[in-house]
Write a structure and sequence with these properties.
This protein is an alpha/beta fold. The chain has helices at residues 28-43, 57-61, 76-84, 98-101, 105-114, 138-148, 167-175, 179-186, 201-205, 294-310, and strands spanning 2-4, 16-20, 47-54, 90-95, 121-124, 151-154, 159-160, 163-164, 191-195, 197-198, 211-212, 226-234, 237-247, 259-265, 276-286. Helices cover 30% and strands 26% of the residues. The strands form three sheets. A seven-stranded antiparallel sheet has the order 9-15-12-13-14-11-10. It has a six-stranded parallel sheet with strand order 1-4-3-2-5-6, with helices on both faces. Helix 7 (167-175) packs antiparallel against helix 8 (179-186). The chain is elongated, with a radius of gyration of 22 Å. The two termini are 29 Å apart.
Amino acid sequence: MRIFTDLDEVGSIRNPVVTTGSFDGVHIGHKTIINRINNLAKRIDGESVLITFHPHPRKVLYPETAGKDLRLIATQREKIQLLEKTGLDNLIIIKFTKEFAQISSIDFIRNILVGKLHAKKVVIGFNHHFGHNREGNFEYLYELGKYYNFEVEEIPEQDIHNESVSSTKIRKALKEGKIQRANAYLDHHYIMKGRLCRGAEMCRNLNFPTYRLPVEEDVKLVPPDGVYAVSVKFNAETFKAMLNIKHAEGESRESADDIWIELYVLAMDGDLNGRDCTVYFQKRIRNEKEFTDLKALQKQLLNDREAIDELIY
């Protein structure tokens, strides 16, 4: 997958089949769209293209209202990793600014889709809008497609477990600690990427060497306090692990530094300090508990480790 962070960097793309959107979480609905543009591109000896935006438009347009408390399922680095697995040919990341938001839908089509990319086909999701004040939609694209000689296709709303899939519903499931439901909507495990650093000395003294997993971006959605069964991947190796999440002030936070996440890796020796990893969430095991007695804490850690070790994943 080729990645471009500037439209001026984009060179020639063969018979582009294009889609656009935030694609937060790269969930099952997003994958349906990407699979479609990949298949259409193959039919016309072309390349698939996703145009996405960073930061999230709501964070820029409504910083004190709709965007203020918006948490994203995936950081920029996580989204790129998830998109790389879809077979997408080209990813264009446009820096979203208030100035860019002023671009009308016709200018977006004329200057970017046609003028820059020379799109052959454009595919959008159900009820997708674009351009200044979200004035562009499927019908608008379809009419301009006839004028500019590109085809337009709309993907119908995707359902799973009789509920429509959306990033909003996935965020809700994650905020409630319903990891397995979120994973079903996503069609993959909810992930967190980061570089480990040393965890609490107290746990290390109890023969549970833990490592802190810093949250990479303030906008990253982190599930509620508690203990989770996870798997952790270092390069090509994957291990079972247990992970504890503790928000400094309940579920609210000003920045990523207000969250303490500690990881204990089962059946792995060696120093993990400074190692880059990807954590895959499997299941929430229990709520967060406070311990003043070290023996009680050690007993709980042993019980958690046993419970996670017995899970099949």
